[in-house]
């Protein structure tokens, strides 16, 4: 499939001559691996969001910092756009290459530089895989908490660029909460240290600004993350509900009871059935919704919390609450959840995964709104999400071979995100804006806010060479897209009633 | 006392005519309270750091957003510098007014707008006192975690501007970790929303960027904070050590054991004696160092943790570990710590409080380094600090009436902060840079990093009207100050050996 995207709305890009750039690069960095043949470039034409595909002009695969530095200086000098890429597992087209730009693959920077068990930190290169950090820290009883579904493959540099999340974010925070320091290169090849090894760094918090900036501000060359001690025990409860609203209420009640689960996930009936068919996790296929609630910590504490959560779930209307009897069943319960996306992929030729975030109290209403919008657009929507922090992943099922369905799916997705914004939420929780949600940014922010984003971008990258066309829309795009800023509670869209 | 400061190093400020500005303001905002007589202006000449004093040209005390908006537009139009101020309790001269500028006092914006117990958030105006938020949330069993010593008086707007900390930061994070959303006005009077009510906001993380920006980027007009459930129980242990090094080791061991105390504070002998004389907290006056360790959470958990921490402390060499027998003793133990600054104020006509942060493992070495520097400069230094997160508050005792002592104290303070930077730490943990530490920023950052700070500043405030001369030094200042960037491990200062 190929979702329509009009890149003329992002303003003109500099004209770059491929042969000249190749020659200049080979001259400036003789030992740099560069891909330039069509068949070599093909594998880099998209990231985890396959809806958009563009063949890059050139792909550079550096191994050393000085190579990256020289490459950036050259690109800056010749006004060549640069898109950085880690493992390419992102889901919003953030690492999508440009036809007239260089794709800078940082995957070969894959060394763990130092694990400091006393300080509980790991200093690693940006191409190190998320899971590899936890594996390296395991002998010290430590781990790295943020765990996106792609953690076996995704790299920490990409995690920082996208401010990646995961099942454990509710308790342990997003990537930004688990970072101490990064080393970056500016587009001019200048080395900068953002953050520090200590509690806090003075001056502006450029570490947080950089986290989630999606490659628009600089190139990450080193990352120092915080490590956490592995919890003694982890238990998981599976609760069944005969309505999505009751499950939503249980989520709010658990949090209100002062319990912070390690993970708190919801799936609706369509998702439950798909996962059960695929994984045989032992899910109740007749339930309208299930909640998976993991509690971790020290033994006595977890035991008490399990009892309290069970009580809260039953009071909120759960028809059944089961605790995984052993580690094998716990892993099976999670396997169903973690494979929900591919499971739903078996139901439909194509699906489109959204990533809206809403205040928890709005869950029941927004789920009703999604169901209504789905019916209106004639498309099925499965819901799988990080319920505890209000991060929803509605999956729109469609068939790109049916005329018009792709467009309908895209339009429905946009409406769902706008609904999230209306109730005070946002258009992304953990997948980033990338190219995918760039139009919805016009709904999220007003023109003063967008102007400020551009001013910040200009502070780092005055010529706009780093990952153009992603994350921050041009004001021109927003004007063309026609969507104005939605203030929560207002209704600029006549077809969307407030529920 | 009056620490020397050469404001010419911050570049020229616009010339403003007081009478004309007063007239223009009275015309533009007829119902705005403005102070302009010398005796009215006097109370605003400094913040909590009384070392610097400047009489502001005018003080504005708005009550409504539209007044602030109009005022800012006018100041922007006429290039009038604006310094925002909350309660004025800051300790780094961040709210120090300008002779040729307007002091914008936000203290009258002191309404709690909404407490949402289900979402566990409070939406408040910037002049609301830190403690007042917890008091308003108490009926719901909730509280606001960051608790600077000044929490009874300091306002949340100032907390955001300085990214304030407190005893509980180790476990619950700094201000930035406890914020959801802020409303701000740009210097042009434009309303901006940074952050969102949901987990995460897309685009650049301007909320984090703004937090701790010390009034250089805009005026905070509304703050939405996260609330936490009050822990069921809190217990405190008091451990005595015959050397500061052993206490430092105990801190590292507690953290390494995977325990995260609610608070973990250290005091050295000079601080212990001063506090005991003043408060009669029951401290062991012969100990070289004490640790106060608070454990909070559910009953069973806290009980277990107390046993484990006691064991770790004894193994690290504690000569005695006492648990507060009851709530009254717990409060007394903390009262000694919380009054340590005024207690030390009784020992000496003047003291100068530093706020360096270092990696925890460097504690013993840095304490030795401070002792050596103190001897070298012939001044006593007491140490009181948030040991758990490596945030030190060395208090330099001196007498401003003795010729040269003020200068020696200031020079010693600078050396101590440079020592923090050398071991990979930073020149501030929670007090901010303000005017006080602006020279040390030249040691913390290289010129590429400082240039980037200026570029970010320009993105928000192109004319440099917001709080000029604070937080971010000019490159000219750094060149004049003569201190170049210290990379950890390097030694640009020949008189400072690496210990």
Automatic annotation (TrEMBL), chains A, B:
GO terms for molecular function: glycolate dehydrogenase activity. It comes from the Bacteria. SUPFAM superfamilies: FAD-binding/transporter-associated domain-like (SSF56176), FAD-linked oxidases, C-terminal domain (SSF55103). Gene3D superfamilies: 3.30.465.10, 3.30.70.2740, Vanillyl-alcohol Oxidase, Chain A, domain 4. It is an enzyme of class 1 (oxidoreductase). Its cofactor is FAD. Signal peptide: none annotated. PROSITE patterns: FAD_PCMH (PS51387). Residues 52-230 form the FAD-binding PCMH-type domain. Its EC number is 1.1.99.14. Keywords: FAD, Flavoprotein, Oxidoreductase. This is Glycolate oxidase subunit GlcD. It comes from Pseudomonas serboccidentalis.
């Amino acid at each position: 499939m190929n979702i329509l995207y009009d890149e003329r709305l992002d303003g003109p890009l500099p004209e770059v001559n491929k042969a000249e750039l190749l020659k200049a690069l080979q001259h400036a960095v003789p030992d740099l691996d560069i891909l330039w043949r069509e068949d070599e470039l093909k594998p880099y034409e998209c990231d985890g969001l396959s809806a958009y595909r563009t063949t890059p002009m050139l792909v550079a695969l550096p191994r050393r910092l000085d190579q990256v530095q020289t490459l950036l200086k050259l690109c800056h000098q010749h006004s060549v756009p640069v898109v950085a890429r880690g493992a390419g597992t992102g889901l919003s087209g953030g690492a999508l290459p440009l036809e007239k730009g260089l794709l800078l693959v940082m995957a070969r920077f894959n060394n763990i530089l130092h694990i400091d068990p006393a300080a509980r930190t790991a200093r690693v290169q940006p191409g190190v895989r998320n899971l590899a950090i936890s594996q390296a820290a395991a002998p010290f009883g430590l781990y790295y908490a943020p765990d996106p579904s792609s953690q076996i493959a995704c790299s920490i540099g990409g995690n920082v660029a996208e401010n990646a999340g995961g099942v454990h974010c509710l308790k342990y925070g997003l990537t930004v909460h688990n970072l101490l320091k990064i080393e970056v290169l500016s587009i001019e090849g200048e080395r900068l240290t953002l953050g520090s090894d200590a509690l806090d760094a003075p001056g502006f918090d450029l570490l947080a600004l950089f986290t989630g900036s999606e490659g628009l501000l600089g190139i990450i060359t080193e990352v120092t993350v915080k490590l956490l001690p592995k919890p003694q025990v982890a238990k998981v409860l599976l609760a069944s509900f005969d309505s999505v609203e009751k499950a939503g209420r249980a989520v709010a009640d658990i949090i209100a009871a002062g319990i912070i689960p390690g993970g708190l996930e919801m799936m609706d009936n369509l998702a439950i059935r798909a996962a059960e068919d695929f994984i045989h996790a032992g899910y109740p296929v007749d339930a309208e919704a299930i909640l998976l609630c993991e509690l971790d910590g020290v033994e006595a504490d977890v035991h008490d919390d399990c009892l309290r959560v069970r009580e809260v779930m039953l009071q909120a209307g759960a028809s059944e609450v089961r605790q995984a009897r052993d580690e094998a069943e716990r892993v099976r319960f999670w396997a169903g959840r973690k494979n929900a996306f591919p499971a739903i992929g078996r139901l439909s030729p194509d699906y489109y995964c959204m990533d809206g975030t809403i205040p928890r109290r709005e869950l029941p209403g927004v789920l009703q709104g999604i169901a209504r919008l789905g019916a209106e657009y004639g498309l099925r929507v499965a819901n799988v999400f990080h319920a505890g922090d209000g991060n929803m992943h509605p999956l729109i099922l469609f068939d790109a071979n049916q005329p018009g369905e792709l467009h309908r799916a895209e339009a429905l997705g946009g409406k769902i995100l706008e609904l999230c914004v209306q109730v005070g939420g946002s258009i992304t929780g953990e997948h980033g804006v990338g190219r995918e949600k760039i139009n919805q940014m016009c709904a999220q922010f007003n023109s003063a806010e967008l102007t400020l984003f551009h001013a910040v971008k200009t502070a780092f990258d005055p010529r706009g060479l780093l990952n153009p066309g992603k994350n921050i829309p041009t004001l021109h795009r927003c004007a063309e897209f026609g969507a104005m800023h939605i203030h929560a509670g207002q209704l600029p869209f006549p077809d969307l009633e407030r529920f």
